[in-house]
Design a protein that fits this description.
This is Subclass B3 metallo-beta-lactamase. Helices cover 30% and strands 20% of the residues. With 305 residues, the protein is of the alpha/beta class.
Length: 305
Amino acid sequence: MKPLHLVAASLALILALPSSAQPAAPTPPAARDRPSNWNTPTKPFRIIDNIYYVGTEGLGSYLFVTPEGHILLDGALPESAPLIEANIQKLGFKLSDIKYLLNSHAHFDHSGGLAQLKKDTGATLIASERDQSALEGGFYLGNEDEGATVPKVKVDRAIQDGYQLKLGGRTFTAHLTPGHSRGCTSWGFEAKDGGKTHPGLVFCSATIAANRLVERPQYEGIVGDYRSTFQKAARLKVDVFLAPHPEFFDLSGKRVKLAAGARPNPFIDPAGYQGFIARLKAAFEVGLKEQQDAAAAKAVKAKGP
């Protein structure tokens, strides 16, 4: 059986395992326990329009190219930064042309490389104000007593829901979708393909992972945040569906189809997005009920006979 730390890494496991089988606290897993593909190099490629995949095999990082400079979203693990930088350069782009770094959420497997990437590119880091303390403190929100677990990084522009970044004729919209982290941000964009313009989204996440929902909640209001996120996410019109974890949207399968010349572009997948959100919502309610039941059983046991 795989280590319990791997629950957060695989959508299949997240949706299949009860929350009671997940770690009690969201401590970042030791390097030996992490999925092997999280820091495995993979060849970068153009997804659609001006959007390129520059992440590792198991952790997403996306480059948005514009005539006025580029935007890089997410930094994967601390040790992933050199791989992301190498992928950007393999595509023929310069690190110095990256003007902005965006973050989906302040978890070690998506924010860990930001400090190095910021140093090497000189880019401005933009992230949700609700995740700012975690990014700048290098900790997992709700587990501050464990100290810093990833390199600390200064947020240059702390933003709120609805913030828009405009660069090179493109607009990127921040949709706050909290729960998985307090400042979980899904970034909206538009992508052109075959003469049509498609709404796209890098959906942050909404898995429970190792979050405490009932006893000593990870943060105040977390359950309400999750439920609001499911409602909001279902209302969003999304054709091009991307995410921080490639398995969330079958990047590998779609990549093969794209290379084979499939039309329309296989990353245009509105049904896949809606199905994913529905599965996450169902899994959340199951996980919440299990944590509630466990807390109730613990309370009864504490009272004694």
